Amino acid sequence: MLMHTHEARLAALREELKRQGLAGFVIPISDEHMSEYIGSYAQRLSWLTGFGGSAGTAIVLRDRAAMFVDGRYTIQVREQVDGQFYDYCQIPGESMGDWLRLHAPEGARIGYDAWLHTRGWVSATGKAVAKKKIALVPVERNPVDAVWADRPEPSKAVAEVHGDEFAGRPSAEKRSEVADWLKAEGYDAAVISALDSIAWLLNIRGTDVERTPVALSYVIAHADGTAELFIAPEKVTPELEQHLGNAVTIRDRALFEPALGSMKGKTVAVDPDFGVAAIYQLLEEAGATPVAERDPVIVPKATKNPAEQQGHRDAQARDGAALAKFLHWLSVEAPKGGETELSAVAALRGFREETGLLRDQSFDTISAAGPHAAIPHYRVDEESNLPIAPGSVFLCDSGGQYRDGTTDITRTVWIRTEDGSAEPSAEHKDRFTRVLKGHIALAMARFPAGTSGGQLDALARQFLWQAGVDYAHGTGHGVGSYLGVHEGPQRIAKATGPQPGTGEPLRAGMILSNEPGYYKAGDFGIRIENLVLTVPQDIDGAEGDYLGFETLTFVPIDRTLVERSLLTADEIDWWNRYHAQVREILAPQLEGDVLAWLEDACTPL
Question: Domain Peptidase M24 C-terminal: where (predicted)?
């Protein structure tokens, strides 16, 4: 029976829990690869609750339920999930284990899908509830799937070859390095389950997940240099078979579980963050020894080779011209008062599509007018869509997927009135300029090799801190090469709390975002984001190796919001040099009114 309301779906799930003898069930936003973005077939939490964020978990008991989200989604969860049926819980302050211990009956059997959770989550939550004799039970069939009558099928789109001209290195060379690592560590094989790792290792891409060009599959890499690719047969083309060659055996994705079950006596590396609990369980049941080791592909993938670096520069230049056309359009149309958040999304998508090379957006565009700009991860829809009001702040965070690179850029602009009478307030300009100063400080940073993103984070916050304000998100994330827009292991964020990657040393070749911000709830928000490439620095007299950043993103920053008196001579020099580069890169791609707009936007401060 098709369920038409979230209340009815919740009731149907509870009936299924009774049938399976469970007192409760845990529903994360996740797939069997622990992906950030997941296919429609895996959107169980959205189907059940209506929540549209990218991170969250529900726990459903027979008589009570809760939604767990982090600080990014405090507002959104209340707008989308009915508080009649779900408690709102914010992590990390409120843990799932504590909530279960408080609300589940003693001795309760709480189900979980072992293909959707890490072994670490199972262990930590299991320990938290053990005192109340609550048992976490892996289910044979996900009870949400049992009641989701019209659940979509996984994508059947074919996998695509990612040419060496974009990849920069042949797959055989990458697999050989993985084999060398396995032999050096004394492992027989490694399970590669992260979809972007598989894509990078085999130089393949796909269209199975929106915003991330990956193909649903698994890889078992062996110490002898061979590999097995487990992928649905309909996704395999003769071109793919020829590309992979004899050293990669292509098997039906349905054979992945039996393959794990045949590894008796083998020592197998499994990433603890991307290898789900079921993989560990199957290996242990088979008599293999799974070892929690970081996926050997992660650091090489994050460290871009020269071809990937140049691809990013080319993609950023193309994308920058599309952004310039969009910002010109916005400057002309928005003051008339007829544009909305959604019309801006459509216009920007159109300018990117004019390149003829756009494959997809790299994430859902954050098009945020007025108070919505104060929600860092706001996502516009028909219900939330606001007009872009003249005389206000507008924030747009967006990105594109191109075969040669993945882009991510945020610009915050002042929407003028047609008569030019409305000016940004002193507060607008102060906050914008403090964010700008932090952005410049990070862009100009030089630091010894071995420095982590967590050590650099305060550079971007210092000027906001001086005014007694801060922002709640990280300052920078890694970015893939025609892959995930959020890519580890590197990260620039506060080094305290559960922030993965803040202690990861930055390496030459790593790409990160530089995106400090400021958000005044219910009023306005500011963020300035460019992508940067970590590069060696030649410093006279340097004692040891030093690194710094090469800026990759070139799009004008809105001078209307700058309080020039707050900037130092060095910061003004950075601004002028940056905008000279913007003009040099974008002007040859533009003409007419857009070119005139660019010239004006790039005049020195």
Answer: 546-605
Residue with tokens 């049992």: 146
Its sign, for the CA torsion 23, 38, 124, 290, is positive
The single-letter DSSP state of residue 486 is S
Cβ(499)–Cβ(526) below 8 Å? no
CATH of the domain at 464: 3.90.230.10
Within 10 angstroms of residue 218's Cβ, the number of other Cβ atoms is 24
pTM exceeds cut of 0.90: yes
- The side-by-side arrangement of strands in the sheet containing 405-406 is 360-361, 400-402, 405-406
Residue whose pair of structure tokens reads 């262990």 in the numeric block: 123
Q: Collect all residues with Cβ–Cβ distance below 8 Å to 464 and sequence separation of at least 6.
A: 431, 434, 435, 438, 470, 471, 516, 518
Residue 497 has pLDDT above 80, yes or no: no
Query: Residue 2: pLDDT above 50?
Result: no
Residue 501 pLDDT exceeds 70? no
Say if residue 376 is preceded by a cis peptide, omega within 30 of 0.
no
Range of the domain at 168: 160-301
In a domain, residue 57? The reply is: yes
Q: How many domains does the chain have?
A: 3
Specify whether the CB–CB gap between 461 and 475 falls below 8 A: yes
Residue 422: CA atoms inside 13 Å, Cβ hemisphere, count? 12
Helices and strands: H and E segment counts in the chain: 19, 28
The CA distance from 157 to 394, in Å, is: 37
The backbone region for 337, taken as left when phi is positive above 0, alpha when psi lies in -120 to 50, beta otherwise, is: left
Q: Are residues 380 and 280 in the same domain?
A: no
Q: Identify whether the C-beta of residue 228 lies closer than 8 Å to the C-beta of residue 193.
A: no
